[in-house]
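Input (Transposase):
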Amino acid sequence: MLAGVLGCFAGRFGRVEPRRAATAFVTGLLSDLEVKTCWQLAEQAGHARPDAIQRLLYRAVWDADAVRDDLRQLITDRFGGPDAVLVVDETGDLKKGQHSVGVQRQYSGTAGRIENSQVGVFLGYAGASGHTLIDRRVYLPASWTDDRDRCQAAGVPDEIGFATKSQLAADMITAAIDAGVPAGWAAADEAYGNSAVFRAHLRGHGLGYVLAVSCSHLIPLDGGKTRVRADRVAAELPASAWQRRSAGAGSKGPRFYDWAWLDDVCTDADPDDGGRHSLLVRRNATTGELAFYRCWTPQPAALAQFVRVAGIRWTVETSFQAAKSQVGLDQHQVRRWDSWHRFTTLALAALAVLAICAADAAHHDPADTGLIKLTVNEVRRLINACIIRPISDLTHRLHWSG
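Output:
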């Protein structure tokens, strides 16, 4: 699978040197290195200097978006299906200094507070047999796009202007649909679900959606004549409105919640969209905590379908966790626009190796043996134990320690 993933985009390199460097780079990301910077990856690959690995990110001639396209095709060929879900979310990387592209003091979900950080918006793909990340965009705050000298110093193309995170997410979804990615649904958290423009964008593509919204989100009732807070709508629901259903398997078994579904509400959208609008409410059976979702489908759908998609949204969180803990997604030490996209794309390639291997292991597993299914963490451990042969020559190690 490692060879297959690397081979899917090998033709994007016009010279053998950057192609070999990319192979070493992705293999190094899969290795058991604690820190995965250019220096560590070069040492792992057996290079005498970090030049080849650094050149791959900074000066070598190759198109990271074209490599992304090849990866996306490989992943959707493996996991694709008409009921697959496109999931968008962002993640932040804590940074020092002011020169890394997109960095500023802003809220970071990683830290849970406002920190000096860099935010990337990602598109995940979840099919019946597996899930992983298939696209990425770096978020440029207005403090960057309003300062063209700063953008030029970081290599940001002149045509790149300010775009909100939901606009970046919409761009990735449009690119996926235009590329023929099979999907029937989209899912996202409330940062995207609260955006009427983002919801309209999904309807324009005919994608059904289950988008989280905030408790204070105003739900249009009676054809938009009345607007009521989502939590107020939930408070007035009778006990008979709730059904207990699983949102999918978790680490400890099925994730059961109570669900209430209000069909044919939220009708303030374009009346000619031809679809069905509804509100979905999830209640934690233990704590009573509520979550709210605005839903739309081009055709009538059952409650079970909305619950499934709501549960799948969490796959992007597990992909982030795996990408950071297993392949160093957040360990890049790059400042420029191209370098960020190149590092991130190669990290997605390494993540794809793990995700596809784990899915293949689950698919080929015989009848229930009572053993835990292979995870991406265990797949990476096996790759290091059975495939990657680290350089152990003492002279080489002392050279890098000098």
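The CA atoms of residues 181 and 264 lie 29 Å apart.
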